[in-house]
Amino acid sequence: EEEVDDDEEEEETADEKAEETDEAKEEEKSAEADDDDAEKSESKDATNDTKSETPKKKKKKTIMVQKEQKKVHKKTLDVEAFHVGNVRPYTPELMEESKAKLAELERKDRERVMLEESRNRVESFIYLIKNKLVDDEEAIGKVTTEEQRAELSKLASDAEEWMYDEGYNADLATMEDKYAELSTPANKVFFRVSESTARPEAIKALQTKMTKVEDLMKKW
Fold first, then answer.
1. DSSP 3-state assignment of 96?
2. pLDDT of 135-155, one tens digit each?
3. Is the whole-model pTM more than 0.70?
4. Cα(117)–Cα(165) distance, rounded to whole angstroms?
């Protein structure tokens, strides 16, 4: 009987150990489940915190504002003119006198410019005559006599002396007369020279045309 009791006691002890093991496993599972719930709760809280931290975009509202129209006020002003000091407005007489003075100054200035141009033209023509008599001596010799060439050379020399003597203070009309005195005989000589130089080419061109005309006449 004592042996039977010992076996029963051993069986009870084994059952108790098994029950304790099962309880421990259940506690571990329960603890793990609690941990999972805690992690999920923390994750949800973190998500909620993130959402709460993200600023919400504000909707823009369009407000129509009507501009105020400007009003224009017109008023006629009465103005009275007055003058201070020694400066006074021109009277019609003074205005006409001033205009006449300005016109006279403008005329003199224009004459001065024309006189300078005329003086330069005379001086340039003097040197042109002298240079032509030397450079184109052969061509001029064919269309003039020795007396004509001497007269033309003397005319240029006398005009040069006159330029630095009487002509220095000469007026516009006098300067124009001196230019005509020089250019009239000189241009006649220069024209004859140009004709003499161009004559061979003109004769050649005329002969060519005549030849063409004769050829056409023969074909008829």
1. helix
2. 888 889 888 899 999 999 999
3. no
4. 18
